[in-house]
Amino acid sequence: MTMGTPPSSQAYGEPWYWDNRYAHESAPFDWYQKYPALAPLIHLYVPHRHQRVLVVGCGNSVFSEDMVNDGYEDVVNVDISSVVIDAMQAKYSNRQQLKYIKLDVRDMSPFQGGSFDAVIDKGTLDSILCGNNSRQNAAQMLDEVWRVLKDKGVYILITYGTPVYRLALLKESCTWSIKLHVIVKFGPEGSSEQPGRQLTDPIPLDESGSLVEDVLGKNPDVHYIYVCTKEPKAKE
Q: Where is the Methyltransferase type domain (predicted)?
């Protein structure tokens, strides 16, 4: 499925754009990757189906429905668009394992610290980086993701952002240990096939991320998956 293109990618960072988009295009859409393609990695890092999962920028994706169909028991979804949250609350009113809440990821104060075992992000950080005050807003989001995670909880970021650009951003304000995985982008039928490397095999990472190019070559046609484990801050 192809959804409409905004006048500028900067619109991706603006709430009004998403309300307008979901008001006019209600069919389900999954950014970047669908659950079946990512399931082996989710199973690896969120191995217990009772673990509490937060999906940020959920939109009208069926990703969370597929997680519940796979046995996950508590999947909380947030999005800044009231239009899409209202629609998803109505759609899944009979699925107690799925919760939908209108929330700005830069301020998730309704959630207590250490509330979740995992946070999954398919394109939300990327969208924020398209908007105004992008670095400040991205830092606020990452601080909130770190706060709502339990110690040793995982932030699974699926993005087009290469390590040279994303690693520094991730490390600026939060204490993470980071592993990198890659998955090829959708094929013509919307499926992802891994050529030569298993999705669950991490890519070697150096401090700057420049080593990845030696492994994958220049401009690989992949999405990058950063698995960021929350490390407790050292006591002063």
A: 54-156
Q: Which residues contact 208 (CB under 8 A, 6 or more apart)?
A: 163, 164, 167
What is the model's pTM?
0.90
What is the strand order of the sheet 53-56 is part of? 98-102, 75-79, 53-56, 116-122, 149-159, 222-230, 176-184
Q: Phi then psi for 2, rounded to 5 degrees?
A: -115, 125
**Which amino acid does the sequence have at 208?**
S
CA distances, 15 to each of 1, 29, 82, 161, 221 (Å): 22, 18, 9, 22, 29
The per-residue pLDDT for range 67-100, each reduced to its tens digit, is: 999 999 999 999 999 999 999 999 999 999 999 9
